[in-house]
Prior knowledge:
It is globular, with a radius of gyration of 17 Å. The model has no long low-confidence stretch (mean pLDDT 97). α4 runs antiparallel to α5 (144-156). α9 (220-227) links the parallel β7 and β8 (232-236). The chain contains ten helices and eight strands. The relative contact order is 0.15. It has an eight-stranded mixed β-sheet with strand order 1-2-4-3-5-6-7-8, sandwiched between helices. It is α/β, with parallel strands linked by helices. It has helices at 39-43, 68-81, 93-103, 131-140, 144-156, 160-166, 172-177, 182-188, 220-227, 245-257; strands at residues 2-5, 11-17, 22-26, 48-52, 86-91, 108-114, 210-215, 232-236.
Amino acid sequence: MNHTLSPDGTKIAYERTGHGPALILVGGAFQRRGDFGALPDLLSGNFEVLTYDRRGRGDSGDTAPYDVQREIEDLDALIRLAGGSAFVHGMSSGAVLSLEAAARGSAISRLSVYEPPFVVDDTRTPVPGDYAEHLTALVAAGARSEAVAYFLTRGVGLPAEVVEGMRQTPFWPGMEALAHTLPYDAQVMAGTMSGRPLPPGRWDSLAPHLLVLDGGASDAWIRNAAAALPGRHQTLPGQDHDVDPHALAPALTAFFTD
């Protein structure tokens, strides 16, 4: 494990593997640098793969107050470390963070995203209007378990009975430990889970260098979210939001080596 410094002084923990052009992986909610499974190793034959803990997670620091721009600056610090420009792949809310970084001028030469969790139509219930504020209040009150449950039911859209069953699993405490970062992801997603179309033109400039991926077994709402973005589109047959690295790696390799 190594650290680099973001401009606000926050330590960002990262790891490198492989050789070739730099490819940075940006995780979604609850995801830390070690949670990409076999994906870094599968990509390491063609790329120098950088995985990192987004601020507030794992071995990275967390400087208050949170701001999406600070997270973009974290990614920029890694891009500078990689030589000044890099390929980037974002997962879920990390996909949206990556889109926003590219739109704001980060030196991302090519970008791929997997299932950004927009809610752009009526195929699922949108998040409540006070979603981010309610998450923040739960975390501030120390109600970490309730914050995770609220995120999973209102943010992800899982049935309450499914979430109740998840409370008994071994991975629930790990999610509780990262509950304070859920309001961060809510800020990243702000305005894109309302059930209305995405703002016109927000990411159109990225289209020539953007690959948008989804899973053929995913729910309609999240596939519609992917379809709402510009760029090249590809569906991975049989995959859902918990994508198999062995299905994802060939698509990323083809795109970034094309």
